[in-house]
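Quick one, tokens below:
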């Protein structure tokens, strides 16, 4: 998440749009920027080493990152309309999944109803993409500063049923298998992004040593209080686990 924060800062400083695809080294529950309440047993699972807790800079509800592919997109959006910005920022995802014979459409649940749930995948709003059977495939959330947009999303692929039930006390969405393996999926996503998002070839650019130092400074800006029961959130985000706004 420190890299995604850095990407957004670069955009705010006049940098170019960026797209990042990544996976997680261990099961992690990311909490939305404004999510101030969550079930107590999540901390129990974290203390037992079954999950890690982190805080996203973007909004939305909790996402279990296990058996998923995460994306972070930073771009300047000309239209501050929430619905229009999601349509623009998700066009490449719809194109990629449509090519796999898995057309996706936006959800219809009211945003207020989603705020009542702790689990991002429990409801599908206009920010989310749903498959033809009604299962939520991709959940997305945003952070705005002026016209600078950071959009996060989780592409649900093979969610672990037992862990999902332990976290959310319900089964994961039932999703159809895709015709691609992990590398093929990322290749198809890249092709779709080039054709329907940036309209140009994507340029892969590793972070320089100075850029990595900036990322690490964001991660270490607020060292965790080891006595805090939510130290894992502070350690991973450099921010208070209970934001005021």
């Amino acid at each position: 998440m420190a890299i995604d924060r850095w990407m957004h800062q670069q955009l705010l400083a006049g940098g170019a749009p960026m797209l990042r695809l990544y996976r997680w080294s261990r099961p992690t529950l990311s909490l939305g920027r404004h999510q101030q309440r969550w079930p107590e047993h999540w901390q129990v699972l974290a203390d037992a080493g079954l999950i890690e807790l982190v805080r996203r800079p973007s909004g939305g509800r909790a996402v279990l990152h296990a058996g998923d592919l995460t994306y972070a997109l930073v771009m300047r959006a000309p239209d501050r309309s929430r619905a229009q910005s999601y349509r623009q920022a998700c066009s490449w995802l719809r194109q990629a999944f449509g090519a796999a014979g898995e057309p996706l459409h936006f959800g219809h649940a009211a945003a207020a109803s989603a705020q009542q749930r702790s689990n991002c995948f429990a409801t599908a709003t206009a920010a989310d993409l749903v498959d033809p059977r009604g299962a939520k495939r991709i959940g997305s959330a945003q952070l705005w500063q002026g016209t600078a947009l950071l959009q996060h999303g989780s592409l649900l692929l093979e969610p672990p049923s037992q862990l999902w039930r332990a976290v959310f006390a319900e089964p994961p969405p039932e999703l159809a298998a895709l015709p691609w393996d992990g590398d093929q999926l990322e290749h198809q996503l890249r092709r779709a992004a080039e054709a329907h998002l940036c309209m140009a070839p994507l340029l892969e650019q590793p972070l320089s040593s100075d850029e990595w130092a900036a990322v690490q400074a964001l991660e270490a800006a607020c060292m965790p209080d080891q006595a805090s029961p939510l130290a894992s959130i502070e350690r991973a985000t450099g921010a208070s686990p209970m934001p005021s706004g």
